[in-house]
Amino acid sequence: MPEKIDFSKVSFLIVDQNKLSTQLIRDILAMLEVTRVRSVTSVARARNVLRGEPVDIIITEYHMEPETGIDLIDWIRTGMDSPDRMIPIIMLTANSEEEYVMRARDRGVTEFLAKPFNVEGLYRRLVSVIARPRAFVNIDDYFGPDRRRRQVDYGGPDRRRAD
Amino acid sequence: MARRAQIIPPRPDLRRKAVNHTRGFDFKLSPAMVQKLEQVVHKARDSFTADIAARLVAMRTALREASDGEADAGQALHAIYRDSLEIKGAGGTIGFDLLTAIGKSLNDFVSGLQELDPRRVDIIDLHIDALYVVLADNITGRGGPTEAAVLKAFSAVREKFKDD
Questions:
Q1: Per its UniProt record, what SUPFAM superfamilies does this chain match (chain B) (predicted)?
Q2: pLDDT in tens, B34-59
Protein backbone atom coordinates (compact mmCIF):
# COMPACT_ATOMS: atom_id res chain seq x y z
CA MET A 1 0.00 0.00 0.00
CA PRO A 2 1.47 3.40 -0.94
CA GLU A 3 2.45 5.86 1.73
CA LYS A 4 0.24 8.86 2.43
CA ILE A 5 0.67 12.11 4.29
CA ASP A 6 -1.82 13.07 6.96
CA PHE A 7 -1.47 16.84 6.94
CA SER A 8 -3.91 17.20 9.84
CA LYS A 9 -1.02 16.15 12.07
CA VAL A 10 1.28 18.91 10.84
CA SER A 11 1.40 22.49 12.14
CA PHE A 12 2.53 25.45 10.06
CA LEU A 13 3.75 28.99 10.57
CA ILE A 14 3.46 31.39 7.61
CA VAL A 15 5.62 34.52 7.72
CA ASP A 16 4.70 37.02 5.03
CA GLN A 17 3.73 40.68 4.91
CA ASN A 18 1.43 40.13 1.94
CA LYS A 19 -1.94 39.21 3.40
CA LEU A 20 -3.32 37.89 0.10
CA SER A 21 -0.39 35.59 -0.37
CA THR A 22 -0.76 34.37 3.21
CA GLN A 23 -4.48 33.76 2.72
CA LEU A 24 -3.84 31.80 -0.47
CA ILE A 25 -1.36 29.53 1.29
CA ARG A 26 -3.81 29.11 4.16
CA ASP A 27 -6.58 28.14 1.73
CA ILE A 28 -4.36 25.61 -0.03
CA LEU A 29 -3.30 24.12 3.29
CA ALA A 30 -6.93 23.95 4.42
CA MET A 31 -7.74 21.96 1.28
CA LEU A 32 -4.99 19.55 2.35
CA GLU A 33 -6.80 19.23 5.69
CA VAL A 34 -4.24 21.19 7.66
CA THR A 35 -5.90 22.51 10.79
CA ARG A 36 -3.07 24.17 12.65
CA VAL A 37 -1.78 27.26 10.84
CA ARG A 38 -0.44 30.44 12.39
CA SER A 39 0.47 33.43 10.26
CA VAL A 40 2.43 36.54 11.14
CA THR A 41 3.62 39.58 9.24
CA SER A 42 7.09 40.05 10.70
CA VAL A 43 10.15 38.13 11.78
CA ALA A 44 9.82 39.54 15.29
CA ARG A 45 6.32 38.07 15.59
CA ALA A 46 7.53 34.79 14.15
CA ARG A 47 10.10 34.62 16.95
CA ASN A 48 7.38 35.17 19.52
CA VAL A 49 5.21 32.40 18.08
CA LEU A 50 8.10 29.96 17.88
CA ARG A 51 9.16 30.70 21.45
CA GLY A 52 5.64 29.96 22.63
CA GLU A 53 4.61 26.85 20.77
CA PRO A 54 6.11 24.12 18.63
CA VAL A 55 5.68 24.41 14.87
CA ASP A 56 6.44 21.64 12.39
CA ILE A 57 7.03 23.65 9.20
CA ILE A 58 7.73 27.32 8.50
CA ILE A 59 6.81 28.92 5.18
CA THR A 60 8.46 32.31 4.87
CA GLU A 61 8.80 35.12 2.36
CA TYR A 62 12.31 36.47 1.73
CA HIS A 63 11.48 40.15 1.25
CA MET A 64 10.17 41.59 4.49
CA GLU A 65 10.93 44.70 6.51
CA PRO A 66 12.60 45.53 8.79
CA GLU A 67 13.97 41.98 9.05
CA THR A 68 14.01 39.58 6.11
CA GLY A 69 13.34 35.89 5.75
CA ILE A 70 17.11 35.39 5.84
CA ASP A 71 17.22 36.95 9.31
CA LEU A 72 14.59 34.45 10.40
CA ILE A 73 16.59 31.53 9.00
CA ASP A 74 19.74 32.85 10.69
CA TRP A 75 18.00 33.01 14.04
CA ILE A 76 16.49 29.56 13.75
CA ARG A 77 19.65 27.83 12.53
CA THR A 78 22.25 29.63 14.61
CA GLY A 79 20.54 31.72 17.29
CA MET A 80 21.49 30.92 20.86
CA ASP A 81 17.81 31.07 21.83
CA SER A 82 16.49 29.21 18.79
CA PRO A 83 13.69 26.88 19.86
CA ASP A 84 14.47 24.28 17.19
CA ARG A 85 17.51 24.56 14.95
CA MET A 86 16.34 21.76 12.66
CA ILE A 87 12.83 22.90 11.85
CA PRO A 88 12.06 22.65 8.11
CA ILE A 89 11.87 26.07 6.42
CA ILE A 90 10.32 26.60 3.01
CA MET A 91 11.11 29.94 1.42
CA LEU A 92 8.35 31.08 -0.91
CA THR A 93 9.34 34.32 -2.59
CA ALA A 94 9.37 36.50 -5.68
CA ASN A 95 13.06 37.11 -4.98
CA SER A 96 13.76 34.18 -7.26
CA GLU A 97 17.05 35.09 -8.90
CA GLU A 98 20.00 32.79 -8.37
CA GLU A 99 21.74 35.10 -5.90
CA TYR A 100 18.73 34.89 -3.56
CA VAL A 101 18.40 31.13 -3.95
CA MET A 102 22.09 30.64 -3.15
CA ARG A 103 21.96 33.01 -0.20
CA ALA A 104 18.96 31.21 1.26
CA ARG A 105 20.58 27.83 0.66
CA ASP A 106 23.83 28.91 2.30
CA ARG A 107 21.96 30.13 5.39
CA GLY A 108 20.10 26.86 5.83
CA VAL A 109 16.78 26.98 4.02
CA THR A 110 15.24 23.54 3.52
CA GLU A 111 13.29 24.21 0.32
CA PHE A 112 13.02 27.21 -1.99
CA LEU A 113 9.97 27.93 -4.14
CA ALA A 114 9.81 30.91 -6.46
CA LYS A 115 6.71 33.04 -6.84
CA PRO A 116 4.80 32.84 -9.06
CA PHE A 117 4.25 29.30 -7.91
CA ASN A 118 1.84 26.53 -8.78
CA VAL A 119 0.12 24.19 -6.38
CA GLU A 120 2.05 21.13 -7.51
CA GLY A 121 5.36 22.88 -6.84
CA LEU A 122 4.25 23.77 -3.33
CA TYR A 123 2.92 20.27 -2.69
CA ARG A 124 6.18 18.65 -3.82
CA ARG A 125 8.09 20.73 -1.32
CA LEU A 126 5.69 19.84 1.47
CA VAL A 127 6.13 16.17 0.66
CA SER A 128 9.87 16.62 0.55
CA VAL A 129 10.21 18.21 3.99
CA ILE A 130 7.78 15.78 5.64
CA ALA A 131 8.54 12.47 3.97
CA ARG A 132 12.17 12.87 2.94
CA PRO A 133 13.90 14.72 5.76
CA ARG A 134 17.50 15.58 5.04
CA ALA A 135 20.60 15.15 7.16
CA PHE A 136 21.97 18.31 8.73
CA VAL A 137 25.51 19.55 8.48
CA ASN A 138 27.34 21.43 11.20
CA ILE A 139 30.56 23.00 10.00
CA ASP A 140 32.58 26.19 10.53
CA ASP A 141 30.14 28.75 9.17
CA TYR A 142 27.13 26.65 8.29
CA PHE A 143 24.41 24.84 10.14
CA GLY A 144 21.56 23.55 8.02
CA PRO A 145 20.28 20.81 5.74
CA ASP A 146 22.88 18.99 3.69
CA ARG A 147 23.20 21.11 0.55
CA ARG A 148 24.41 18.20 -1.57
CA ARG A 149 21.23 16.71 -2.94
CA ARG A 150 22.85 14.61 -5.61
CA GLN A 151 24.23 11.33 -4.32
CA VAL A 152 27.50 10.66 -6.13
CA ASP A 153 30.33 8.18 -5.65
CA TYR A 154 33.22 9.74 -3.80
CA GLY A 155 36.50 8.62 -2.38
CA GLY A 156 37.29 11.30 0.19
CA PRO A 157 36.22 11.29 3.80
CA ASP A 158 33.98 14.36 3.67
CA ARG A 159 32.69 14.41 0.08
CA ARG A 160 34.37 17.76 -0.41
CA ARG A 161 35.87 18.99 -3.64
CA ALA A 162 39.22 19.24 -1.87
CA ASP A 163 39.26 15.59 -0.78
CA MET B 1 42.31 24.01 8.09
CA ALA B 2 38.57 23.53 7.95
CA ARG B 3 36.95 21.59 10.76
CA ARG B 4 35.52 18.25 9.73
CA ALA B 5 31.81 18.46 9.07
CA GLN B 6 29.52 16.98 11.66
CA ILE B 7 26.69 15.14 9.92
CA ILE B 8 23.47 14.98 11.90
CA PRO B 9 21.12 12.23 10.69
CA PRO B 10 17.71 13.24 9.34
CA ARG B 11 15.21 13.77 12.12
CA PRO B 12 12.37 11.28 11.72
CA ASP B 13 9.76 12.83 14.02
CA LEU B 14 7.73 14.73 11.43
CA ARG B 15 7.71 11.79 9.06
CA ARG B 16 6.73 9.46 11.87
CA LYS B 17 3.88 11.76 12.86
CA ALA B 18 2.37 12.41 9.41
CA VAL B 19 3.26 9.54 7.07
CA ASN B 20 1.12 6.41 7.15
CA HIS B 21 -0.57 3.92 4.85
CA THR B 22 -4.22 4.63 5.54
CA ARG B 23 -5.11 8.29 5.81
CA GLY B 24 -4.20 11.42 3.89
CA PHE B 25 -2.82 12.37 0.50
CA ASP B 26 -0.61 10.38 -1.84
CA PHE B 27 2.94 11.63 -2.33
CA LYS B 28 1.98 12.42 -5.90
CA LEU B 29 -1.26 14.33 -6.19
CA SER B 30 -4.02 12.91 -8.36
CA PRO B 31 -5.16 15.09 -11.30
CA ALA B 32 -8.50 15.56 -9.52
CA MET B 33 -6.77 16.87 -6.40
CA VAL B 34 -4.53 19.16 -8.44
CA GLN B 35 -7.67 20.56 -10.04
CA LYS B 36 -9.25 21.14 -6.64
CA LEU B 37 -6.20 23.02 -5.43
CA GLU B 38 -6.06 25.05 -8.62
CA GLN B 39 -9.66 26.05 -8.01
CA VAL B 40 -8.54 27.51 -4.69
CA VAL B 41 -6.02 29.64 -6.56
CA HIS B 42 -8.60 30.56 -9.16
CA LYS B 43 -11.01 31.75 -6.47
CA ALA B 44 -8.33 34.12 -5.20
CA ARG B 45 -7.90 35.68 -8.61
CA ASP B 46 -10.28 38.61 -8.14
CA SER B 47 -8.65 39.61 -4.85
CA PHE B 48 -5.18 39.43 -6.39
CA THR B 49 -6.32 41.45 -9.43
CA ALA B 50 -7.75 44.17 -7.18
CA ASP B 51 -4.54 44.19 -5.15
CA ILE B 52 -2.40 44.55 -8.27
CA ALA B 53 -4.58 47.42 -9.51
CA ALA B 54 -4.16 49.17 -6.16
CA ARG B 55 -0.39 48.69 -6.36
CA LEU B 56 -0.35 50.25 -9.84
CA VAL B 57 -2.15 53.31 -8.49
CA ALA B 58 0.29 53.49 -5.58
CA MET B 59 3.32 53.19 -7.87
CA ARG B 60 2.01 55.87 -10.23
CA THR B 61 1.35 58.21 -7.29
CA ALA B 62 4.76 57.60 -5.75
CA LEU B 63 6.47 58.21 -9.08
CA ARG B 64 4.52 61.40 -9.77
CA GLU B 65 5.18 62.85 -6.32
CA ALA B 66 8.88 62.06 -6.53
CA SER B 67 9.29 63.45 -10.04
CA ASP B 68 7.46 66.63 -8.99
CA GLY B 69 9.82 67.00 -6.06
CA GLU B 70 7.05 66.49 -3.51
CA ALA B 71 8.52 63.25 -2.17
CA ASP B 72 11.91 61.69 -1.73
CA ALA B 73 13.05 59.79 -4.85
CA GLY B 74 14.76 57.06 -2.84
CA GLN B 75 11.61 56.34 -0.86
CA ALA B 76 9.48 56.33 -4.02
CA LEU B 77 11.87 53.91 -5.71
CA HIS B 78 11.81 51.70 -2.64
CA ALA B 79 7.99 51.62 -2.73
CA ILE B 80 8.03 50.86 -6.47
CA TYR B 81 10.58 48.09 -5.87
CA ARG B 82 8.32 46.50 -3.22
CA ASP B 83 5.12 46.78 -5.29
CA SER B 84 6.72 45.52 -8.50
CA LEU B 85 8.14 42.56 -6.59
CA GLU B 86 4.66 41.68 -5.33
CA ILE B 87 3.24 41.97 -8.87
CA LYS B 88 6.06 39.79 -10.20
CA GLY B 89 5.18 37.15 -7.62
CA ALA B 90 1.41 37.32 -7.91
CA GLY B 91 0.86 37.64 -11.66
CA GLY B 92 1.83 34.17 -12.81
CA THR B 93 0.29 32.53 -9.75
CA ILE B 94 -3.15 33.64 -10.96
CA GLY B 95 -2.45 33.04 -14.66
CA PHE B 96 -1.12 36.46 -15.69
CA ASP B 97 2.38 35.43 -16.73
CA LEU B 98 2.86 38.67 -18.62
CA LEU B 99 2.23 40.68 -15.44
CA THR B 100 5.00 38.70 -13.83
CA ALA B 101 7.35 39.33 -16.78
CA ILE B 102 6.70 43.09 -16.86
CA GLY B 103 6.71 43.27 -13.05
CA LYS B 104 10.11 41.57 -13.07
CA SER B 105 11.39 43.97 -15.72
CA LEU B 106 10.32 46.94 -13.60
CA ASN B 107 11.67 45.35 -10.44
CA ASP B 108 15.03 44.70 -12.09
CA PHE B 109 15.13 48.28 -13.34
CA VAL B 110 14.47 49.96 -9.99
CA SER B 111 16.51 47.49 -7.95
CA GLY B 112 19.43 49.46 -6.49
CA LEU B 113 18.32 52.80 -8.03
CA GLN B 114 18.51 55.76 -5.65
CA GLU B 115 17.86 58.66 -7.97
CA LEU B 116 15.30 59.55 -10.61
CA ASP B 117 15.82 61.52 -13.79
CA PRO B 118 13.30 62.28 -16.55
CA ARG B 119 14.33 59.26 -18.59
CA ARG B 120 14.03 56.89 -15.67
CA VAL B 121 10.63 58.36 -14.84
CA ASP B 122 9.52 57.68 -18.42
CA ILE B 123 10.77 54.10 -18.30
CA ILE B 124 8.99 53.37 -15.01
CA ASP B 125 5.85 55.07 -16.36
CA LEU B 126 5.92 52.90 -19.48
CA HIS B 127 6.18 49.77 -17.35
CA ILE B 128 3.19 50.86 -15.28
CA ASP B 129 1.24 51.64 -18.48
CA ALA B 130 2.01 48.17 -19.81
CA LEU B 131 0.91 46.54 -16.55
CA TYR B 132 -2.36 48.48 -16.71
CA VAL B 133 -2.97 47.28 -20.27
CA VAL B 134 -2.40 43.64 -19.35
CA LEU B 135 -4.81 43.93 -16.45
CA ALA B 136 -7.45 45.95 -18.32
CA ASP B 137 -7.36 43.69 -21.38
CA ASN B 138 -7.24 40.56 -19.23
CA ILE B 139 -4.22 39.20 -21.10
CA THR B 140 -3.54 35.84 -19.47
CA GLY B 141 -0.53 33.71 -20.27
CA ARG B 142 2.47 35.31 -21.92
CA GLY B 143 0.53 37.08 -24.68
CA GLY B 144 1.57 37.03 -28.33
CA PRO B 145 4.23 38.55 -30.61
CA THR B 146 3.33 42.13 -29.64
CA GLU B 147 3.78 41.40 -25.96
CA ALA B 148 7.06 39.61 -26.68
CA ALA B 149 8.26 42.67 -28.60
CA VAL B 150 7.31 44.93 -25.67
CA LEU B 151 9.29 42.76 -23.26
CA LYS B 152 12.28 42.78 -25.59
CA ALA B 153 12.10 46.56 -25.81
CA PHE B 154 11.93 46.85 -22.02
CA SER B 155 14.98 44.65 -21.75
CA ALA B 156 16.93 46.85 -24.19
CA VAL B 157 15.82 50.03 -22.40
CA ARG B 158 16.79 48.59 -19.02
CA GLU B 159 20.23 47.71 -20.24
CA LYS B 160 20.77 51.09 -21.85
CA PHE B 161 19.49 53.45 -19.18
CA LYS B 162 19.73 51.77 -15.78
CA ASP B 163 23.31 52.78 -15.08
CA ASP B 164 23.22 56.03 -17.02
A1: Histidine-containing phosphotransfer domain, HPT domain
A2: 999 999 999 999 999 999 999 999 99
Contacts of B27 in chain A (CB under 8 A): 2-5, 127, 131
| Chain B residue nearest residue A21, CA to CA | B90
Cβ–Cβ contact B9 with A under 8 A: yes
DSSP readout, B95-132?
A: T-HHHHHHHHHHHHHHTT-----HHHHHHHHHHHHHHH
pLDDT tens readout for residues A129-153: 999 999 999 998 999 999 886 555 5
**Exposure on the CB side of residue B53, measured as CA atoms within 13 A:** 11
How far is residue B160's CA from residue B84's CA, in Å, rounded to a whole number? Answer: 20
Q: What is the pLDDT of residue A160?
A: 55
Predicted local confidence at residue A157, as pLDDT: 52
Query: Which residues from B are below 8 Å from A130, CB to CB?
Result: 14-15, 18-19
Q: Please, is A113 exposed, middle or buried when counting C-beta atoms within 10 Å of its C-beta (0-12, 13-18, 19+)?
A: middle
Provide mean pLDDT across the span A73-98: 96
**Interchain pair A95, B85: CB under 8 A:** yes
- Cα Rg of chain B, angstroms: 22
Task: Go through the domains of chain A in sequence order and give each one's CATH number.
Answer: 7-145 (3.40.50.2300)
Q: Check which CATH number belongs to the domain holding B155 and give it.
A: 1.20.120
For residues A85 and A50, is the Cβ–Cβ distance under 8 A? no
Q: Is residue B131 part of a domain?
A: yes
Q: Are the CB atoms for A93 and A111 separated by under 8 Å?
A: no
Range of the domain at B76: 45-161
> How many domains is chain B built from?
1
